[in-house]
Batch of 3 targets.
Target 1
Amino acid sequence: MPQPEGAELEAVRARREELKAKYVRPRAERPAPPTGGIHHLALICRDVEETIRFYQEFLGFPLVELVENRDYAGSSHFFFDLGNRTLLGFFDFPGHEHPEFTETLGNVQHIALSVTPERFDEIRAKLDGAGVDYLGPDRGVHNSLYIRDPNGTGIEFYRERQGWFEDVHLVD
């Protein structure tokens, strides 16, 4: 997709700084969040077994539940443990045709998963060994590896602590 340049780029950057000045409060002045965090993220998959093999067998996230979707007969609803009491859920919808992934409004751009430096190196070696294409560490982002799951969802392995972004402590 084309990136803004010249005056357009400068206008975008100026607008971002206006929004930051208007809405980002210092940590000490922020109210407590209204929830306990993400319970689970629910995504759609094309093939239940392919998704299980990718997340559990290849990436190592334990499958912790597999049930019928309560509001769509025949559909599966299943969950992986991402750590830190966070679940990644999937639905399939038998009989529905799903278009190929496209990066567009209303879609998940990527899911960023916090990993230790040691785990980051292990993941990179595993991706290399399996011949899986990934981005990073590149684009000036030395702490990230990006892949796509079998459904097209972007997964980022981010070598950063929970609550931090680019070595800046954002939330406790």
Note: The helical segments are 6-23, 48-58, 117-130.
Target 2
Amino acid sequence: MTRTLSALLGTTIFMSTALAAQAQELNLYSSRHYETDERLYSDFTELTGIAINRIEGNADELIARMAAEGANSPADVFLTVDTSRLQRAADMGVLQAIESDVLAERIPANLRDDDNMWFGFSQRARIIFYDTERVENPPLNYLDLADPAYEGMICIRSSTNTYNQTLLASLIENHGEEAARDWAEGVVANMARDPQGGDTDQLRGLVSGECDISVSNTYYMARSIRRDVEGLSAEDRANIGWVFPDQGGNGAHVNLSGGGVAANAPHLDAAIAFMEYLASDQAQEYFSAGNDEYPVVEGVAIAASAQELGAFEADDVSLAAVAGNLPLAQQIFNEAGWE
């Protein structure tokens, strides 16, 4: 299974006999909703001749659908935008472990499942933004967000948001359960408003003055640098600063976009070929250029919009271990009164 797409990582295309002999199609279940991904799919088809049939929807709905379809599921590959969903798919038995020298070599060990059930292909750092005129000493790490000095200042999403769930799960892994509980309770006490909206809304809260500090994934800010985003024009962003947390410590927490091969994939070689393609320099560059994300493969060019945010040290904690803390993270959120 390791042979199917190794040549795509170089300049010459070579398809194995097994892959070429298969029906030339791939059934992709995806909760990625970015128009820019069209280029990923069309380039793969151009390189391999394999047509991609897409079924798109909410990640949880797609996982439930794959489980209900069982052995008759047409799904070959599942793509989604957070570690929690990847792990949920693995726990539900709708993914299978695969062997690929390409993926083992190119995807860092902390950004993939220990049993090769899922792999990360792009990442977004979850960082701290603040109003530079109203905040003289912004938080420098995640735990600082719970400091009483920031009472009534913070905008952040709900506890049902997967980005926040994996952030808290990472704090459990790095600092222990007690510190994670203190953090959740402290952030609730420091909220400027009840959790609402998406990451872009947290940034808009800084512009409106509703809050002084917010938490968001990097690509929401980078996207506003690359193109027009309502409420985040260059003038709107003029007083927004940002901090990559825990530099010199654990490093900034990253959320993954990634995928896995479906448990009953009818086109197994094509599925692995597609996964390997997503780890190629070509696809990795496009994850960044097309959607302002950070590549997971070292040495791949980073989009100018993301570069403008600056270089940072990422937390190298195992995201598979973090995923194991997700049930406890939700329990802590609930007990802290984090809506």
Note: The beta strands are 25-30, 51-56, 77-80, 95-96, 119-131, 154-155, 213-217, 240-243, 254-262, 294-295.
Target 3
Amino acid sequence: MSALDRLLARCAMLCTVLSSAQPAQADALTDILPTVKPAVVGIGTMLPTRAPPVVFMATGFVVGDGLSVISNAHAVVPPLSSQHEALGIVTGAGSQLQFRPATIAALDREHDLVHLRLTGTPLPALRLEGEPPKEGSALAFTGFPLGIMLGMVPATHRATLAAISPSVLPAVNSRGLAARALSQLQKPGFTIFQLDGTAYPGNSGSPLFDPATGAVVGVINMTVLKGTREGAIANPSGISYAIPARHVAELLRQSPGGK
């Protein structure tokens, strides 16, 4: 075999390896989604005299013993309109939605996280990843990009970890950060994940996970907006941010019922 033939054979082998790598990665996400999606829930409030009775606020996900739910504090903690309005989670699909009341077990306003506790039957839970992802990692997140407008169907989006950056946040999130919350997020030593991936207003609180294992590496916190909040739907920026999962683990350690 000539040198040219050997070179061509090596090129053919390399092309075969490269062409098989992408389908394998795609298959990993396809295989893990049935595990991830049952643990992703809607966060909202219930008021029986309201139409509709349930108002969607954010996405959340179940961890630990199946009775702990994590989401963004900025999306979940606004005051209730009356003593008859209840905070909780929404599960199910289509017209078969179910509302389960929840209580706030702990808040981490510095990292914009909230831990909700449920009672009753545990739900499928996601595992937190102990090691942070590296820049350039291929990740994914699942949530409700437009809330219940699309019928509570969890949607999954791919994202690349573009940078691990200081928490000097350049824009508001889907519901707007108060000046106090923004100043807290800008404290020295706090870093966030900058993602090359499109998140929408309802994605606040979505789990950011490793597509190969389903382990959660972060919590979607905000997306950079072009113009108005409504413009995020028609003209998304493609730049989103996530809170690293280590802060979720710390919140759970400090929470009643957390693990």
Note: The radius of gyration is 20 Å.
